[in-house]
Amino acid sequence: MASASSEPTVRTLVDEAPQDAVRRAVETLVADATAEDGVAPLSEQGRLDVHRDHGVTHLVAEAGGRTVGYAQLVDDAAELAVAPAARRRGVGGALLDAVLATDPAARVWAHGELPAARALATSRGLQVVRELFLLARPLPPEGDPLPQATLPDGLRARPFEPGRDEDEWLRVNAAAFAHHAEQGRMTREDLDERTAQDWFDPAGLVLVVPDDDPGTVVASHWTKVHPAGELGDEPVGEVYVVGVDPVHQGRGLGRPVTLLGLHHLAHDPRHPGLRDVVLYVDGDNAAALKVYRSLGFSTRGTDRMWARTADVAGDTMGA
């Protein structure tokens, strides 16, 4: 633990991954912060990017010979975490100042509605430029029954097939999320990294394809199950990515494609008895919010992105 008199210093690593010992320390402080706050300080992509040595600027705060904070900057988006034992000692301020010195136009995520995060952002004159809602609903039998997922004529659902569908899924994902900074830039490396995780289940990545052209993806719903302790005391399902090829948008696919994934989670043989499902959606995505709320989702939390100007266009979802 850093002593109260230790002033934090910040090391900046550009296209250079932290050394193993520092990386392990960062993983520990992220876990400790998650347990303390009830919300992870880094997104899933942020946690994966801790290991990357290209395309990421890593900022490591140290005091008393220990790693007490961490931030990362990818393009112009930043996230930061401070060890609970080192809070209220200027670590968060030092990290945020270093991020803004590196990129004055940086947009900084604050996950959850934590008063300390708001206070830090406003102390640097930052304003909210984007909101990401966490929505949730109980699955049957605790929650309301799910409507049937009825696709338009000529379309059917099938599971993702590893080794066959990667490139086609990436094509549709890039098109559906062309204006979404995080999701739309997913590469084959990113996809392979996720499909190699223990949580990945090909049956949980539901593809919608034409009856007469099953190799072409029209839309998809990728589901995920978080283990107990990650989002609560029990496993929790997630509407991970819902995307519709823009060529097929306007056909009312968002609702049935969402339902396909919800039905999978409700009857997932790998995770029987799931009680809850969550999803993230941009606060300005009225169309997606309308679909999700019509399916019984309500707001459980909010992530906010802060920057020095409010004149930043909001992103849109691809559902």
TrEMBL record:
Binding site for 1D-myo-inositol 2-(L-cysteinylamino)-2-deoxy-alpha-D-glucopyranoside: 44, 182, 224, 238, 280
Residues reported to bind acetyl-CoA 1: 80-82
Alphabetical list of NCBIfam families matching this protein: mycothiol_MshD
Similarity remark: Belongs to the acetyltransferase family. MshD subfamily.
Catalytic activity: 1D-myo-inositol 2-(L-cysteinylamino)-2-deoxy-alpha-D-glucopyranoside + acetyl-CoA = mycothiol + CoA + H(+)
Self-association state and partner proteins as the record states: Monomer.
Enzyme's top EC category: transferase
Coiled-coil intervals, chain numbering: none
Keyword set, alphabetical order: Acyltransferase, Repeat, Transferase
Gene Ontology terms, MF aspect: mycothiol synthase activity; protein-N-terminal-alanine acetyltransferase activity
Binding, acetyl-CoA 2: 242-244, 249-255, 285-290
GO annotation terms (biological process): mycothiol biosynthetic process
EC number: 2.3.1.189
N-acetyltransferase domain boundaries: 8-140, 155-318
UniProt superkingdom: Bacteria
Keyword Transferase in record: yes
The protein's name: Mycothiol acetyltransferase
Job description of the protein: Catalyzes the transfer of acetyl from acetyl-CoA to desacetylmycothiol (Cys-GlcN-Ins) to form mycothiol.
One Pfam entry name: Acetyltransf_1
